[in-house]
Write a structure and sequence with these properties.
- There is one protein chain.
- By secondary structure, the protein is mainly β.
- It folds into two domains: 181 residues, OB fold (Dihydrolipoamide Acetyltransferase, E2P); 50 residues, Ribosomal protein L2, domain 3.
- The chain contains one helix and 17 strands.
- The strands form five sheets. The protein has a seven-stranded antiparallel beta sheet with strand order 9-16-10-13-14-15-17, with no helix packed on it.
- Strand 6 and strand 7 form a beta hairpin.
């Protein structure tokens, strides 16, 4: 994969770049039963009122049924037959054909190629794309599509270029370091895939123009201090002054930046180190 920069023959192409998609081998989905009708993200709730701002328009791509568990194919080898683009996620997906004839989508790893073998089992050879229990993965290996809740399938480390590291198997649970710096305790019997998620150069892509963002279902965002005071706490003035407050606020007066929003206290016991670094005094 690489970044392709266009010659700016129009103003809209001046700061635009694309992924060259050299890794993708199929232009269109080849297995129709793995497709489900997609829904538009309009930002509105069941009563027709806006519940999520700055959403609307865009396309409604078909959803690809990705197998995040892969445990239904324990011990059954498979080969990657196609690598496809998925409009619903940043990573690419791979179509795996198993020896029993079944075909399923999985998250493609960084160096995935057509013809590569993949396997899911309690313990397999620690190669890229293979999936097994954390207790059988060598310490220090990069992993992705990590299972947090047993038998629920991969829940974290699924976006393009993401990876976590298995840093310890001492004690009752495995210690996994996420890309944010957080260290989390995970059951040793949970499954994870070896390697790094594909399409890692996507973060270098430049959108370039507003219309391209509208195709993604994102509407324009207006700064709070460009509004009137009745519409936003930052409003008023000539839009060139500071917000005049001790901290930024949301339109409803709550803290906007620099405040922890995590409320799930039941799972705090599984976090050994948070991603928030202690301030130096």
């Amino acid at each position: 994969m690489g970044i392709r920069v266009l010659k700016p023959t129009t103003n809209g192409q001046r700061d635009m770049s694309y992924l060259d998609n050299a890794q993708i081998t199929a232009k269109k989905p080849t297995v129709k039963r793995l497709l489900v009708k997609g829904n538009k993200i309009s930002g509105r709730g069941g009563h027709g009122k806006i519940t999520i701002r700055h959403r609307g328009g865009g396309t409604a791509p078909q959803y690809r049924l990705v197998d995040f568990k892969r445990t239904e194919k324990l011990g059954i080898p498979g080969k990657i037959s196609e690598i496809e683009y998925d409009p619903n996620r940043t990573a690419n997906i791979a179509l795996v054909t198993y020896v029993d004839g079944d075909k399923r989508y999985i998250l493609a790893h960084k160096n995935a190629k057509v013809g590569d073998s993949v396997m899911t089992d309690v313990k397999v050879k620690p190669e890229e794309g293979n999936r097994m229990q954390l207790q059988n993965i060598p310490v220090g290996y990069s992993i992705y599509n990590v299972e947090i809740t047993p038998n629920k399938g991969g829940q974290i480390v699924r976006s393009a270029g993401a990876s976590a590291k298995l840093i310890s198997l001492d004690g009752e649970k495995a210690q996994v370091e996420l890309s944010s710096g957080e260290i989390r305790l995970v059951e040793k019997t949970n499954f994870a895939s070896i390697g790094t998620v594909s399409n890692e150069e996507r973060s270098l892509m430049r959108i370039g123009k507003a219309g391209r963002k509208r195709h993604m279902g994102r509407r324009p965002q207006v700064r709070g201090k460009a509004m009137n005071p009745v519409d936003h706490p930052h409003g008023g003035g000539e839009a060139g002054t500071s917000i005049g407050m001790r901290y930024p606020k949301t339109p409803w007066g709550a803290h906007a930046l620099g405040v922890k929003t995590r409320r799930n206290k039941d799972t705090n016991k599984y976090i050994l180190r948070t991603r928030h670094r202690a301030k130096k005094r």
